[in-house]
Amino acid sequence: MSDAPKKLHIKTYGCQMNVYDSERMAEAMGTEGYVLTDDPAEADMVLLNTCHIREKAAEKVYSDLGRLRPFKEAKPELKIGVAGCVAQAEGEEIMRRMPLVDLVVGSQNYHRLPEMVAATARGERPVDTEFPVEDKFEKLPERPATGRPTAFLTVQEGCDKFCAFCVVPYTRGAEVSRPVARILAEAGKLVAKGVKEITLLGQNVNGYHGEGDGGVWGLGRLVRELARIEGLERIRYTTSHPNDMADDLIEAHGAEPKLMPYLHLPVQSGADRILKLMNRHHTAEAYLRLIERIRAARPDILLSSDFIAGFPGETEQDHRDTLALIEEVGFGAAFSFKYSPRPGTPAAERAGVDPEVADRRLHELQALITRLQHESQAAMVGREVGVLFEKPGRLPGQWVGKSDYLQAVHVTSETPLQGALAKVRITASGPNSLAGVLV
Ligand code: 5AD
Ligand code: SF4
């Protein structure tokens, strides 16, 4: 046996929380002597960190597993693991359908990964999709420096909202908030390692209610406390529910300069009938009034949302109401998805919209969103904006980063800009990014 490090390949699907979880799993396996590789062909272990939010995402996992078969045939000692929300939702079913899989680890059990890998070496095929009481993050090793100026930090997991289309309450479980002290400690360590921007993550992040000094803290208070960390320059959070936008969080957008002027606040539909069928517990009007209050606190905030096209029962008028709401808010960014029935959710039992109609509505949503996004980008030309540079661009001397409003910006500079936070004057707006010059 050689003692060359073993190689781990992780493929991450879906949301930013999976990106964060993949990093933490890589660190856990790092203490077992594994180093990361981009190439599955040279890996000793392949881990798929999966997403169950829409049918396509879940099916992709099975086809990717099929594609790993030749690697396993060439190297029978290759370990294949399935993690994330498909693992959580389908557990044993994956083992039955895919004999090449060695372990299945649900989203709350990543701290158990090393012992599970050890069990596979004894010929076992462990499955762990329990919801344990302990905080998995406390059991995972400390995070090493990455050299990147941005980091994710999970503060809350799970969701109690039960929107009629959504699997998250089933795959990620009930809402749990990490205690304030642990979040502050993790943030402090990230900043000491050179991180300047932290994005707080949670499936329902603005529902954060963690144990802090003197009782339970909401997200607004947590943000203000994090903002006191010297060297931390930018704070973001995602994803939020309209009904959990507390007054002090809205105020923080006006009062706390480190809280970036970008908010992803999904509304899903602009039609009250559909919002009710979706179990959203708010009307379109309530959303619009909320947006007014947020803009009163921070007039330049860039707003983003998610929309679903072709939710069961959606009429042409409902769809037009959604287009009208998008136009009225003037989102600077947004995501739209064709409704996908998810097993176990209430909406999956209902009669669906004709798929061709749903496709056409999706295209209409996307066309409107793209137009608004371009308008919002074009309006940046001539303005000065903060940019945190993350990496070199494609062209020589080019550096790319994100503006305060989370837009991609590139500039040309002789001196390296990696990790620098600088003021940039925007000179041009392209389809997906802005160009500028250092001020
Ligand atoms: N079908 C289509 N889109 C969905 N989303 C969640 N569940 C579904 C589904 N079953 C979308 C919502 C959510 C985003 C993350 O994914 O818009 O905000
Ligand atoms: Fe899913 Fe978000 Fe609704 Fe929770 S609030 S059920 S995560 S869409």
Automatic annotation (TrEMBL):
- According to its UniProt record, this protein's enzyme class is transferase
Q: What are the GO MF terms of this UniProt record? A: 4 iron, 4 sulfur cluster binding; metal ion binding; tRNA-2-methylthio-N(6)-dimethylallyladenosine(37) synthase activity
Q: Its Enzyme Commission number? A: 2.8.4.3
Domain named Radical SAM core: residues:
145-375
Binding-site residues, [4Fe-4S] cluster 2: 159, 163, 166
Say yes or no: keyword Transferase present: yes
Iron is among the record's keywords: yes
Q: Which reaction does it catalyse?
A: 2-thio-N(6)-dimethylallyladenosine(37) in tRNA + S-adenosyl-L-methionine = 2-methylsulfanyl-N(6)-dimethylallyladenosine(37) in tRNA + S-adenosyl-L-homocysteine + H(+); N(6)-dimethylallyladenosine(37) in tRNA + (sulfur carrier)-SH + AH2 + 2 S-adenosyl-L-methionine = 2-methylsulfanyl-N(6)-dimethylallyladenosine(37) in tRNA + (sulfur carrier)-H + 5'-deoxyadenosine + L-methionine + A + S-adenosyl-L-homocysteine + 2 H(+); N(6)-dimethylallyladenosine(37) in tRNA + (sulfur carrier)-SH + AH2 + S-adenosyl-L-methionine = 2-thio-N(6)-dimethylallyladenosine(37) in tRNA + (sulfur carrier)-H + 5'-deoxyadenosine + L-methionine + A + H(+)
Q: Where is the TRAM domain?
A: 378-439
Primary location group: cytoplasm
Cite the Pfam families for this sequence. Radical_SAM (PF04055), TRAM (PF01938), UPF0004 (PF00919)
Positions of [4Fe-4S] cluster 1 binding: 15, 51, 85
**Superkingdom assignment:** Bacteria
Q: Where in the cell is it found?
A: Cytoplasm
Q: What NCBIfam families does the annotation carry?
A: miaB-methiolase (TIGR01574), MiaB/RimO family radical SAM methylthiotransferase (TIGR00089)
User: Could you give the subunit structure recorded for this chain?
Assistant: Monomer.
Sequence similarity: Belongs to the methylthiotransferase family. MiaB subfamily.
Q: Main role?
A: Catalyzes the methylthiolation of N6-(dimethylallyl)adenosine (i(6)A), leading to the formation of 2-methylthio-N6-(dimethylallyl)adenosine (ms(2)i(6)A) at position 37 in tRNAs that read codons beginning with uridine.
Report what the protein is called: tRNA-2-methylthio-N(6)-dimethylallyladenosine synthase
